[in-house]
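Handoff note, outgoing to incoming analyst
You'll be picking up this chain. Sequence as last confirmed:
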Amino acid sequence: MRPRCIALLLIVILGAGVLIGLYGLQNNLFTTFDPGDRYQSERLDYMGVIYANRSNQYGFFEGYSETSSCPWGFIHRGIDYFFINNTEVIAAAPGCVEQVFWRVNPNATLNMYNIYVWIRFNASIILYYTFEPFTHVEGDQDRQLAMLSVQVGDWVMKGSVIGRFLYVEDAAHIDFSVRNGEVAYDPEPFFGSSDHDEIMGLINDYHPGWNLSYTAP
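Most recent structure output, in case you need it:
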């Protein structure tokens, strides 16, 4: 075999090896999450709301939408829960706390500090709880962090208290979403039957006829 052909063959073999290695690494990353016998993680079809008492909310203003043709008039990739101050926030589904952090919201002057709790349900689904106390006061992010009951590495079950909510100004809320990386899913199919009835009851308390989700045609 000519030297040039041998060199090309080696490049192909090495390239294939790299691709196989990368595939194996990615596959490993997506299959290493294992909740053991803590809960059933194959399919999330029993998700609940993130409150214990409906009366702890002061309204419902937006759910999930992939289109502006919805009652709130804009695309919104989650469910907003508008809690009064010091409301207990509970886990919508079981999982492992993967991230707890805060950041400055670059797109707002009032709602500057967002606090995040990410809870992984399985290898592909993470539930995002974004605490938005609606504040521009430095230090309020630390107040909200101090009101959380979980830290990275904790395991929670559905209904476990993950913290209490800090309400600072009107429009304070928690933005809740179901995600796989940067992809946000319509949360409606993940609810259990009675849990879906509960959130629809909440919505209809304020806006009879509204849906929880408005997906693109």
